Amino acid sequence: MAGVVAAGAAAMAVSLVPGSAAGDSPEARTAPAPTATPTESPVAFTLAQAAADSGSPRDVLAGRPSALELRPDAQPRQAAADDEETAETADEQRKSAEPATEDDDSGEDKNGDDNGDEAAPAAAPAEETYPDNLDGWIREALDIMDEHDIPGTYEGIHRNIIRESSGDPNAINNWDINAQNGVPSKGLLQVIKPTFDAYHVEGTAHDQYDPVANIVAACNYAADRYGSMDNVNGPY
């Protein structure tokens, strides 16, 4: 194979020797080419050396680009690929270094979660307090009477309290017939023990001297006997 290549290279060398141009005589153009060995022809040596440097002799004779000629074009493409891979790696590293952020539309309350759409439970109404005096006792008694459907008004209760005890929750009658019978009238509305026990309202103190319990029991009795404490205008 090497001999064939050398012979081909020698033939090309002869065709390239000066003096074989179109201006030579016909005899010169048809004269047989002198036989030359690859080592005697400097042109063949040059082609052989070029073949060794740039690729196979077959590629050189055929005029095809050698592998060396293709490398300069391949190198930029490889460099571009390397640059792109480096850029992707740097981008991934940058993303991994960034702190994770929460989605504002996730619906979770950053203070609890998933508590953004839920309304806070309504606060329980504050328990009403009453002053510890005649006004407070009557108003508290009216609220309890309202829960138990016992009729009566502030004015009717207040009027009867002033007549019976002058507003003293510790008042006691020790001289009337009830006292003589051993059951004296006691409290704001002067209720005797049997009446208080019969008309006592659950939830109030079981004590005749307790101002609220006394008012509620007396009003419950008056409602049953007279329709309402408002209808009582004297001893009852």
From TrEMBL:
Residues 161-231 form the Transglycosylase SLT domain. Residues 81-90 have a biased composition (Acidic residues). This is Transglycosylase SLT domain-containing protein. It comes from the Bacteria. Residues 28-40, 118-128 have a biased composition (Low complexity). Pfam families: SLT. Residues 19-132 are annotated as: Disordered.
